[in-house]
Design brief:
Two copies of one chain form a homodimer.
Chain A lengths: L2 H11 L4 E4 L6 H8 L5 E4 L3 H15 L4 E5 H17 L4 E7 L15 H5 L5 E4 L6 H14 L3 E7 H5 L20 H14 L3 E5 L6 H14 L2 E4 L6 E3 L13 H8 L4 E5 L23 E6 L5 H11 L27 H11 L4 E6 L7 H4 L6 E5 L8 H11 L5 E6 H4 L5 H7 L4 E7 L4 H9 L7 H7 L8 H7 L3 E5 L2 H12 L5 E6 L1
Parallel strand pairs in A: 1-2, 1-3, 3-4, 4-6, 5-6, 7-8, 7-10, 10-11, 12-13, 12-14, 14-15, 15-17, 16-17
Antiparallel strand pairs in A: 9-13
Helix pairs in contact in A: 1-2, 1-6, 3-4, 3-14, 8-11, 9-11, 12-20, 14-16
GO molecular function, one term (chains A, B): flavin adenine dinucleotide binding
Family (chains A, B): Belongs to the TPP enzyme family.
GO biological process, one term (chains A, B): small molecule metabolic process
Chain lengths: 518, 518
Amino acid sequence: MNGADRLCDTLLVNDVDVCFANPGTSEMHFVAALDRKPQMRCVLGLFEGVVTGAADGYARMADKPAATLLHCGPGMANALANMHNARRAWTPMINVVGDHATYHLQHDAPLTSDIESLARPMSQFVRRIASPEDVGPAIGEAYAASLSLPGVTTVILPADCAWGSVEPAELTRTPVPAPRQVDAAQIRAVAGLLRKHGSRAAIMLTGSALREGPMAMAARVCAATGAQIFAQMSNGRIERGAGRVAIPKVFYPIDMALQQLKDIDLLVLIGAQVPVGFFAYPGKPGRLVHENCQVEQLAVPGDDLPGTIEALAEELSARATPPAFIATPQAADGALPTGTLDADKVCAIVARLLPENAIICDESVSSGRSFYFDCHGAPQHDYIQLTGGAIGEGIPLAVGAAVACPDRKVIGMQADGSGMYTVQGLWTQARENLDVVTVVFANRTYAILHGEMRNVGVNDFGRNAKLMLNLDEPALDWVSMAKGMGVEAGRATTAEEFTKLFKGALSRKGPFLIEAVI
Amino acid sequence: MNGADRLCDTLLVNDVDVCFANPGTSEMHFVAALDRKPQMRCVLGLFEGVVTGAADGYARMADKPAATLLHCGPGMANALANMHNARRAWTPMINVVGDHATYHLQHDAPLTSDIESLARPMSQFVRRIASPEDVGPAIGEAYAASLSLPGVTTVILPADCAWGSVEPAELTRTPVPAPRQVDAAQIRAVAGLLRKHGSRAAIMLTGSALREGPMAMAARVCAATGAQIFAQMSNGRIERGAGRVAIPKVFYPIDMALQQLKDIDLLVLIGAQVPVGFFAYPGKPGRLVHENCQVEQLAVPGDDLPGTIEALAEELSARATPPAFIATPQAADGALPTGTLDADKVCAIVARLLPENAIICDESVSSGRSFYFDCHGAPQHDYIQLTGGAIGEGIPLAVGAAVACPDRKVIGMQADGSGMYTVQGLWTQARENLDVVTVVFANRTYAILHGEMRNVGVNDFGRNAKLMLNLDEPALDWVSMAKGMGVEAGRATTAEEFTKLFKGALSRKGPFLIEAVI
């Protein structure tokens, strides 16, 4: 057997059995090895941004990493933006990047590049395989790191390490380090602070703290102390809907975020980062809490976040306190919007018709600002969103979520400008017959940038600004593009048309795209 | 005025008047400044790979750099693969990457990343702007470096350096260092070696040595000494067609390349790198010349390549020798292929119908292997091709070439798998009404990888290999995709249909796509 076989076996022994791929010549032995492992599900993306975006969506829903297969530095370069998003979501991922044979690098052949330099900014772990026998240890380390850091790992596989021989061996599952437990004294201190600050305290969560159980436990702490609860501005996954905590996220618009957090004197971070402006704006602060706000970083990603919340509740004798902020179900008989379509109507219709146990992939950017609130009382669902601000993840995220959860409906809330970045992902949805409804907000502009231009004081746009901020002339025809990639699609210009198309899409299996002209 | 205004003025004073762009919030002041400069042509790409691929195509044809506008690390990450190709073509380019305000970086906001680490592998020059007053010097340095190295330059523009004030100043053109002249003694020595080795010598060219004049001069040297002539495997631009040198390129398939160069005992490199295998293959050499071949690197990119060839001709008294290898015009009355379409027929028809002064953008990969030879005797044209092996440059290259040369017909020879990487570029062709005919070789497979799998000994493909190497199920419908982005298109399944569509596309202005089903 060769190094590539060992690679596949090491993945499989660790239950990593999905590989999102876009191969090239230097990975032919890896492809041949995958071909010998029918238990590995290989999913082709027609561009590497689709590959890593799908791996991100998959792991967020499967709670285990997928592998990716990427071709040399340039292939990985195409994958970096969605690795960046995954890194910001603390998503476990094992990228396998093929490189030239070790002895061929000296020749600086055309595809040669410094893969490590490219990989490090978007990876929590980078490792170059040194020999065929090093393949197994390297993949094992990456697997453990992906789950314990947690995050994006990148392993560079020289072609001769893939094709070189290895001794057969009995493989066993790689041990994963247990998450760090937060110190009891720190728990006690923070509990005391929460008691002291009452409603001027807030707990901010991300990562595994945003699952139903830990979030409800945090809401018990809030009920016991009067504290408020927030999720970060962007998070890998939130379990949402009626009966769960209606957790607010930090707002993106800086003035709204400053307003939202202005009375918080104590901020307890459980996995979350201290909230900061997505961008700097002249004359506005970078941190979103006031200068005298006490910030307590109780736990960081990789720590036992649910255990931290449990310990805090225990310390506050709040384990049985009824949780605060539980969402009540939306009215069953509410009327659906009608008339000319706009973004808010699209959001309201999707929230109202949301099927039980759906997965929402949100890259709606400016169009979906009301959507998160609309869904507080919707049937229970998972909400996964763009985390790192690198647009072009929505369609791939939906691919990955649908591969992870074939029995659940995936709904992509997709801005048009962002959707064009990785539009090729529609083909993978068709190829794999994934149960995804993609709702495209066709406003034919980078709407968010119109607002940002006004923020910098430009209200009258000249020709160059219009050329750079508008997507009209010609308008994108999403129905034709989807058809071109094998995805059925329809266009809606009224709320009634949208409702009809959306109901139709929910009533069937397989990919469907709705161009919502707003 | 602010730093962003200074940036635009510094570009314009150096006659850099095209900016390919995909902006984000951190570049709003740059966008506003561009909006105040109607003499700057701003061209939007719906994905950053389109932006840098177009800048590459533009500079190859305009012989001066374009600027690009990219958004933070992830936006530049999307641009890296075509920066890699440009780097391998030694293309001048000035990338301006917006970043957070200097004082905001400490907060590690979601879009923050290590831009320098990402940029360096794909840039010959990287520089972070330190202050508003540093904008002018930084852009000036990048401009000079882009032309003198020559190559890809990347300048990082923190938002506060764009919005901060600068003193008005009288700007003057930035001096560009003159190219290095090759030492006369080295010329004499190489001339002597060429005389000695006769037909077992070869001159290998790239860069500016592949323009009509220098190439003809090199062919005079060949005529005088008996030497052979080659272009590198991949080159930024070759001036080709009847009456010019019919210069062979080094073959991609390793066995063909080894055969092609096996009798060369002296290789004189003028700008070119020593030829090596595009990939390593078990048991095959990395260098394509034999072990005892003497390799003389007479000049490197950035040196005066045409001057080097002139000096060599002078030394050999060959300046008036009739050049060898001049291509004779193709027969005017040759029959066009008929019947079921295949790749070779597409190539033959395009070569035969090629209009005078066309620009060919070649990313045909395996489908276009006969095309280069078919065009030796075609009407004079420029040939620009994928250089770094990072697929997904064909459509953007055509965008850039058409922007640079609005009066010339651009013909994109496009593999389907590669075309999907940056398919969004079709929209820019429509938006700008560029005179581009894109010929898609729709073989519905990564055909080159089928060959490479056989090279590693796999002849029977199982389910996973088929899933990763084939693009069928569903077949891509290029006509619908093009229509969705505003580009008219047609599909051909016979040679007659292809001929009719291609003639029709040549008879009109503006973008057209032909899906050649092969």
